[in-house]
Amino acid sequence: MNSSTRAKLKLSYKHIKGHDRRQMRKYIQVYAIDMLEQCKHLGQIHNDILHHFQTGMGGEIHVTNGFEKVKQIAQKLKHSEDLGGNSAQMALRAFKEGATVYLQSKMSKKYYTTLFNSSIIVMPSSFLNDIEDVHIVVNYHQGDIYNDIQSPQTNRLYLQNDQDNVQFPGLKELEQHVNLIKPDVLVLGGFQLMNQLSPQGIDNIIGQLSSQLKNITQNYKVHFEMGAFDDKLLMDQLLEHIIQKSQSIGLNEQELQLLHRFIDFHDIREDNNLSQTQYILMVQNVLQKLKNIERIHFHSQKIQMICSNNKWGPIIPALHRSIVVGLIQAMKHQNDNLIDTDYDYTIDLEISLDENLTINERLIKFQDIINNGSYCWQQSDKQCCVAATITHPNPKRTCGLGDNIGATSLLYQLNQYN
Q1: I want to staple 201 with a disulfide (CB 3.0 to 4.6 A). Which of 2, 197, 285, 286 is the partner?
Q2: Three-state DSSP class for residue 192
């Protein structure tokens, strides 16, 4: 797709620190069973890893004390390293799927050259610097066992120490940049690192961002990428000032639970072992309560589901391509800037969907969804489609899969509509 026909995608990371270096970071990848064995003396850190391991939930934790010790242990145990970050992952995937991408994010010049190869425009160019950031990715696979505790599903936990992540870089210039670029979509994400901010810091950043969005004159769509939030004030501010101004939203199981429970009960508690029918009901509830949302993409390890109105392109191509991209990304040894053409790991693929779904009081057999590739229905003014997720039992990487999946479906529905 040439530049004249590419959709323009502008991504902004909603919370970077004072000298902002968090958008492009180095990931140290380790296995949970190794970290659990070596972190027994680290108290809360060990407990946090064990909790996510035994529930199978993904997450991100800010480690206030002991991060250097954790990093030293991870360096010894690492099975690989990678480059990424929420906005970086989405930006790179958007480029691969045919978008012209403008990224407002501070990052290492070295990482930018290695990963992007100048294929993505960073605004302003002064955001490229020489600072390195490290996140630890603790991976656990379904069936992994530690002290007789078995992980119920494949997932990952991020450990980070973004101490001075107190402001969004380039926030004051956001309105100017969007009016200049005239993008088709503005993608907002990475807010989970704001969990550590003070109430005043949250009010300041969300207030400024809300004002910027209100003042932008261009006709464009806003996509909000959910995160794992553990601060009720942050969730309240995001819901009132940012999500209510968005037209599209992307989320996984944990994030869907969070949004659903907060809307209905002002609670951020999570439940385990929910059925896929319960998740579908949550999606329907969110759409009913948030009238401004035109499109939602829910992705889990068993199903993917997209609902959208007629202001977006067809769902099925976006849904199926995002499933394929999830496979491709999971089997990459590391991120790169090469356009994905072939998928080589076609042996031993799995479909985990093993339960029938009840949709609008109608029983839908899971085998029919698998055989037909998807199941679609009308939900008020939106069409909804669900498909079974295809996975590999031994993925090489799990970090960034949601970002790649979300960016893919977003671009497909934008491009086909345009």
Answers
A1: 197
A2: helix
